[in-house]
Predict the structure of Formamidopyrimidine-DNA glycosylase.
Amino acid sequence: MPELPEVHALAADLSSRLAGRAVERLDMTSFTALKTFDPPASAVGRSVIDVVVRHGKYLDFAMATPGGGQLHLVVHLARAGWVRWRRNAPERARPGKGPLAARLVLENGSGVDFTEAGTKKSLALWLVGDPMEISQVAGLGPDPLREDFTAEQLAGILQKAGRAQIKGVLRSQSTIAGIGNAYSDEVLHAAGLSPYQPAEKTDAVQLLDAIRSTLHGAIARSAGSAAADLKAEKKAGLRIHGRAGEECPVCATVIREVIFADRSTQYCPTCQTGGKVLADRALSRLLK
């Protein structure tokens, strides 16, 4: 799933390609992916893209309309979605069963494809006058990379979360925007914290330092990368997530894994849990 660093890089890459370009049309091939109906998809015609930015893990294509108004095409890539830049788009995207969900076509014939692999379709698009009209965007927690996101603010979040496991708190988009399953593992490893540690017992300064160093590091590695290269860069840059059975890059202990439902957690017993192994079940406690 694309998380804050990848969406940040996607926004930068797409903004450099699209800013100042006029839009011809928005083709929807998966009609369930478009979550709004007013304004219609046809409203983007003759709009000019001002910039592409992000809100947490949401991409926002901000456009100026011919009448002087604003439109925002907001996209959430979900778990298996992605963006593909096309120098020359085909005549028109047609509805079908393939991975293509939508195509934004520019007047010069180039464009952007929004695709989603697999059979579980969760990619979503909204066309609105203001991103805050979207409840999911309006409900996002603070961006952890904003300068005004302080250790004191994080401490308040942790205390409010009480005994909730810290990994779940990091992954909650209404609590902190942008961190998902992979980077929550990376942050907790950097902070030396168990994924099951109660939020209220977590040092906010220690955690904030780990959040910022992890996310800034990932963004720096992604800087200048085209959309097609970001997935591989993310996988190569992860130190702990997705590396069960390999050696921890800090202490050489074998990285362990906990699987629950459709998500996995990777951690280092030596760096994070005092040498103890976590039981592989929901609401697990440390094995004695």
